[in-house]
Amino acid sequence: MIPGQESAKPHLPAEAVLSKEMLLQRLKEDLIVSPILEKSQVGDGSVDISLGTRFIRSRRSKMTQIDFPSLNKEKIRSFQESVVVPFGEQYILHPRSFVLGCTFEFIALPLDICGFVLSRSSYGRAGLLIATATFVHPGWRGCLTLELENLGEIPIILHPLSAVGQLVLLNASKLPKQPEAKIIPVSPTFTTLNEDPRWKKIAALYPKTET
Amino acid sequence: MIPGQESAKPHLPAEAVLSKEMLLQRLKEDLIVSPILEKSQVGDGSVDISLGTRFIRSRRSKMTQIDFPSLNKEKIRSFQESVVVPFGEQYILHPRSFVLGCTFEFIALPLDICGFVLSRSSYGRAGLLIATATFVHPGWRGCLTLELENLGEIPIILHPLSAVGQLVLLNASKLPKQPEAKIIPVSPTFTTLNEDPRWKKIAALYPKTET
Amino acid sequence: MIPGQESAKPHLPAEAVLSKEMLLQRLKEDLIVSPILEKSQVGDGSVDISLGTRFIRSRRSKMTQIDFPSLNKEKIRSFQESVVVPFGEQYILHPRSFVLGCTFEFIALPLDICGFVLSRSSYGRAGLLIATATFVHPGWRGCLTLELENLGEIPIILHPLSAVGQLVLLNASKLPKQPEAKIIPVSPTFTTLNEDPRWKKIAALYPKTET
Question: How many angstroms separate the Cα of C56 from the Cα of each of B119, C91, C141?
Fold first, then answer.
C-alpha cells in the first residue's frame, strides 16, 4: 500500500489470492491445469485437482527404516511398489494407511504464481488428508504427487478422476527466469533426497555414528 | 511490482495477510466472526476460533466403506452419529481418533477476503490437528466444520468455547457478487459429495466396475 | 488493484509470496533465518529449515489426559521428557508416533512478513508431517517448535541439521510496533495454554462439571 494514496480505504490493498475471473484469464494465457473436465473445477481462489491412475505404496517387508542419506535408486526401487488403477476401478485406502498418488491434471505455474495443495472439504470430512507437503513454487511443472492418508476410521474408496483436492493459487513476485528442473514428473515420485548436497555438509561437520 | 516505480524499495510490496488493525476495521464493516468473547482473539493476520457444542462421529458398525458416488442422504444419516456436548462439559478425543466439530463463531467473509483454518500452536503441540481441508473461499458464510484428529499419544479433553484454532485471513481479488450457497451450515456437516456432477461424467467415460 | 490504472493487465497484481531475490535482500536487512548452511536453502517463496538437537516426547505413563485448564508448570514438566540428540546421531520416529522438535535456525520475522511452516516434499512423501500448527505471525522471534508425526508405515530416521521443512514467507500489512513476547523460545516448547484468560471466562459462564 502506498501511504497517502489509498488512505481513504485502508482496507483495500492488493489481491493475494486469484479470483475465478483471473484464474480463467490466466488459464487462457500461461497457467496450465489440464485437462479441465468441467467448468465448475475452477473456483474463486482455487482449481480442483483430481486423482490419476498411478499410485506408489511401500513394501514394508523390504525396509526396516527410511534413512535418506543412505538411500540410493536401487534401494528406493526395491522398497516402492507401483500400482496402476485403471479408470473405472478403485483404490481402497484403509484407516491409518498411507499411499502416494498423483494428479490426473498436468500443472504448469507461470513465474508469478505459486500454490498450496489442500484437501477438498468433502474428502477431508471423511478423514482423507491429501498432502503433507503443500507448497508449489512459481514456475513448477508436472503432475503433483499427492500424499494420501486416511485419518478416519472407515475405509475410503478412491476413484481415478475424482476431484479429491484443490490448488489454491497466490500471486508471487515474478521470477526472472524459468527455474531448471531435473525432471518433470508425470507420475508419483519418491524424491531422491539422498542426492541433497546438505548430507555431505552434515557428514563433514559431524562424522556419522551408528544408528 | 511496477518496475522502476518502487525500485528504491524492492522489498515493500502490498500486503497479503491482514494486520490486526485491518481486521478490527473490517470486523466493524463487512467481516463477521461472531461472537468475539475476548479482544485477544483478534491477532495480527488471524482470528482465533473456538469449538461449538455439536460433533459428528462415525458409526463404524454401520459402514464398511465410504464410497462417495454411491452415498445418499439416508446412508449418510445412518452412518453419522450426532453428539451434543453442553457448555461446561467435555468431549474426550482419544489418540488416533477423529471427530467432526464446528466453530462456535458464525463467520461471513466479504467478497475480497479468503482464509486458511489452522490449529493453534498450543493444541498442535499436544497433537491436535484441527483441519484437513483448510481453505475458506471469499464470500463464504456459516459455522466452519472442523476435522479434529488426535495425532498424539494421550487423550485430549475438548471443551466447547475453547479456542482450538485460528483463521488466517488474506486479501483476495474481489468477487463480482456474493456466491450462491445451497446451505449456510450452522453445525458440522458431512457434505453430500454424491451430488457432485463429476461422478456422472466419470461414469459416462468409464462404466463402473465392481469394487 | 486500482481500477483503470492496470486495466490492460488484469492479471498482474502485487506479490503475496516473496521471491528468492526479495528473500536474499531481506535476509541482508531485517529478516533472520540463521545460520544458513547453504545457499540452496533459500528458494523462491520459501527458506528451508532444519532440525535442531532437542526433542520433547510425552511420558504416557505419567498422564491419563491432556486437559489444558487444569495443567500447571509442574504437571507439564512431569509429563514431558526432554531428549537431546547430538549432531551426528539420530532420532528414530516410528510409524504413528509423535514428537516435538525444534528448528536449528533462529528465526526473526520483520513486522511486515508472516510465514507458513510446511513439510518438504521429500520428507512428506516418506510420510513425515512436520507441523500441525503452521502460521508464524509478523514480528515473531525464536526457534520454531516442529510437531513431527510419522504418518507413514516405516520408521523414519531423523538427523539433526537435515532440512525437513520449509518456511513460506508472505507479505503482511506492517505492524506498528514489535509485539511483546513472554519468551523467545530456543528449544521445543509445550505452551502453557493453562494461562489463557479464556478459561476463566468459560468457567464463569459455565461452571465446570466432572469429566
Answer: 19, 11, 20
